[in-house]
């Protein structure tokens, strides 16, 4: 009995159903990416190249995996009569289990988010699919049947996978002695353009020139007016590591195509930085800023991002060791000659060289962003829209670059009064009033709540700009960033508001007088509210509203306390301070109210309103409604 038959008995031909999402994705892809069929070749070549990288890496520990065939390459062939296009490689290959796992299910993080993001608008969705990464399944854009035969390095059993891209696929044992993967595309009606030598070579050069291993095809000749293949192999692509080439020899298109290869993105990048560092550390880095955030930007388990090479040999893809979390959206390649080829994860973990390379690369990226902010403000706005919230994690994570990162941050402010985050600390400082020495901000859980906060009244009246912060990460940012270029960051909803020199002596005297006059009222309110408040006092901040809540300078802001509570964390208890505006009609009415019960109702309503206005929730909403109603009637 031959080995193949023995294997067949263990694994007879089986039909399996695709996961529901795969089916949906396939349909979507075939219908919305129809206008960009050339990418099929790019995706399959990209996979073959990844497979070669994986083999090289595994072979570092186990040279036998090469099986005396260490010249890794990708072959493209076509058969006019059979109307097939074949892409084969001698990379790592796949075991039966790997085939089922890798191309029977979407095993990709972010799939659910992806489906949620779909709009139903074809043009928009095509774009989304691109961002999501089309990969292997794109084969069905031009093929109505795909046959994949593969044998994993070091494994004897070969497997054949076949599907028409509808509901299911079959899998069976196959005869394949050579290592690696062969994919045969049975072309759909009308896709004959892929049966042209010239056309294929053009596509390969356009999309895959940067692939480091040779992509070979048979040389063709014209005979009697027809194109015929010869026996001679021809390497179609440049087949050299793009990042190792000199900048002057790389075109913009090549940089862009390479980005799409490493990032699995569909769109061009927003910016990139390519540099060769020599001296103490020796490495080349080619780092890109994507134009769009990936679906798994907030998935803490994601590991990809930067590909690490040692002397052109792919070692691994790992974002964490080479980029800090707040730059996790950066994509690209770092190639160093400072590490041994057989570098292990443990070595990487504690390597000073790696630390130095990471620090150098971070500097490069921050420099690139600074440059974009200064010279391409429109691009920077796009970047910030996508990644600003991630960048805000920076000052808390990267102490060494805190000031640099802070310089890259942008916020909404009362100046434009829109939710577009485009004001830098520098802009703010340049517009500060002559006597102003701190940067004022307010945090809230929505932009509207920040924008309409009663705390802003005095600032609006005096024309003092305030930064409006409503991203969740803002509270975290403010925990680690307390000043910028010597200017303190000051919450306008915290502590005793002291406008310092921004208030005239006369204003201060008037304020003092009002405080004196309101002493009895303040005391009475305090008694009525009891343990609900830390204190009650006369406000400096309000001009139009009757009251507002303030946190003590050392306490958590109300917003942060709510965020922690929502995240299931125990926030240390901090009670608010109620500030009242004695100039307001309601407060005047309260002062003149002689009926105890009505005074109490009014006071509670005042407090509850102030809590609602800053986005808080009432502990006892029913009582609030009851009191309101009795006051109205
Ligand atoms: P991605 O490349 O983003 O992982 P693909 O859909 O392109 O997604 O491929 C899915 C998986 O199938 C790959 O991650 C890989 O494990 C496997 N695969 C695809 N093509 C090959 C190949 N030529 N050789 C080995 N494995 C492959
Ligand atoms: Mg792929």
How would you describe the overall organization of this protein?
By secondary structure, the protein is of the alpha+beta class. The chain has a nine-stranded mixed beta sheet. The protein has a five-stranded mixed beta sheet with strand order 10-11-14-12-13. A five-stranded mixed beta sheet has the order 15-17-16-19-18. α23 (596-613) packs across α24. It is elongated and about 105 Å long. Residues 1-9 have low confidence and may be disordered. The structure holds adenosine-5'-diphosphate and magnesium ion (MG).
Summarize this, please?
This protein has 24 helices and 22 strands. With 633 residues, the protein is α+β, with helices and mostly antiparallel strands.
């Amino acid at each position: 009995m031959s080995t193949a038959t023995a294997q067949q008995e263990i694994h007879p031909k089986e039909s399996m159903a695709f996961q529901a999402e795969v089916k949906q994705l396939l349909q979507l892809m075939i219908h919305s990416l129809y206008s960009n069929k050339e990418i099929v070749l790019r995706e399959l070549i990209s996979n073959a190249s990844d497979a070669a990288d994986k083999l090289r890496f595994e072979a570092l520990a186990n040279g036998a995996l090469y099986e005396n065939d260490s010249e890794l390459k990708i072959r493209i062939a076509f058969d006019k009569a059979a109307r097939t296009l074949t892409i084969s490689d001698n990379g790592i290959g796949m075991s039966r289990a790997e085939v089922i796992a890798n191309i029977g299910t979407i095993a990709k993080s972010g799939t659910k988010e992806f489906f949620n993001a779909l709009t139903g608008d074809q043009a928009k969705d095509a774009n989304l699919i691109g961002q999501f990464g089309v990969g292997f399944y794109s084969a069905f854009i031009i093929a109505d049947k795909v046959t994949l035969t593969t044998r994993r390095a070091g494994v004897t059993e070969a497997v054949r996978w076949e599907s028409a891209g509808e509901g299911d696929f079959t899998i069976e044992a196959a005869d394949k002695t050579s290592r690696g993967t062969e994919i045969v595309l049975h072309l759909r009606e009308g896709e004959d353009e892929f049966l042209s030598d010239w056309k294929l070579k053009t596509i390969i050069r356009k999309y895959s020139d940067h692939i480091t291993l040779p992509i070979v095809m048979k040389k063709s000749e014209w005979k009697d007016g027809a194109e015929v293949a010869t026996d001679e192999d021809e390497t179609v692509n440049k087949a050299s590591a793009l990042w190792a080439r000199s900048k002057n020899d790389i075109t913009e298109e090549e940089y862009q195509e390479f980005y799409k290869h490493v990032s699995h993105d569909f769109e061009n990048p927003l910016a990139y930085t390519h540099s060769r560092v020599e001296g103490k550390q020796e490495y080349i880095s080619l780092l890109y800023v994507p134009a769009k955030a990936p679906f798994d930007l907030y998935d803490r388990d994601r590991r990809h991002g930067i590909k690490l090479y040692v002397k052109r040999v792919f070692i691994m893809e790992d974002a964490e060791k080479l980029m800090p979390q707040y730059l996790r959206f950066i994509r690209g390649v770092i190639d160093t000659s400072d590490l041994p080829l057989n570098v292990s994860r443990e070595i990487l973990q504690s390597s000073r060289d790696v630390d130095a390379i990471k620090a150098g690369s971070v500097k490069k990226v921050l420099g690139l962003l600074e440059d974009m902010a200064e010279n391409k403000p429109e691009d920077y706005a796009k970047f910030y829209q996508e990644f600003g919230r991630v960048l805000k994690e920076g000052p808390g994570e990267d102490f060494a670059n805190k000031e640099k990162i802070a310089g890259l941050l942008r916020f909404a402010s009362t100046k434009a009064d829109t939710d577009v985050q485009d004001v830098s600390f520098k802009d703010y400082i340049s517009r500060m009033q002559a006597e102003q020495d701190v940067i004022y901000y307010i945090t809230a859980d929505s932009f509207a709540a920040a924008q309409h906060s009663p705390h802003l009244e005095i600032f609006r009246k005096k024309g003092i700009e305030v930064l409006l912060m409503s991203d969740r990460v803002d509270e975290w940012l403010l925990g680690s960033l307390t000043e910028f270029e010597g200017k303190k960051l000051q919450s306008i909803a915290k502590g005793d508001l002291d406008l310092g020199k921004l208030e005239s002596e006369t204003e201060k005297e008037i304020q003092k007088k009002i405080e004196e006059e309101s002493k009895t009222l303040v005391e009475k309110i305090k008694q009525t509210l009891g343990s609900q408040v830390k204190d009650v006092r006369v406000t400096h901040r309000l001009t139009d509203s009757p009251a507002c809540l303030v946190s003590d300078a050392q306490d958590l802001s109300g917003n942060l306390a709510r965020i922690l509570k929502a995240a299931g964390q125990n926030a240390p208890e901090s009670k608010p301070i109620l500030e009242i505006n004695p100039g307001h009609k309601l407060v005047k009415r309260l002062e003149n109210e002689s009926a105890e019960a009505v005074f109490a109702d009014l006071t509670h309503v005042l407090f509850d309103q102030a809590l609602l206005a800053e986005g808080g929730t009432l502990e006892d909403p029913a009582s609030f409604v009851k009191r309101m109603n009795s006051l109205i009637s």
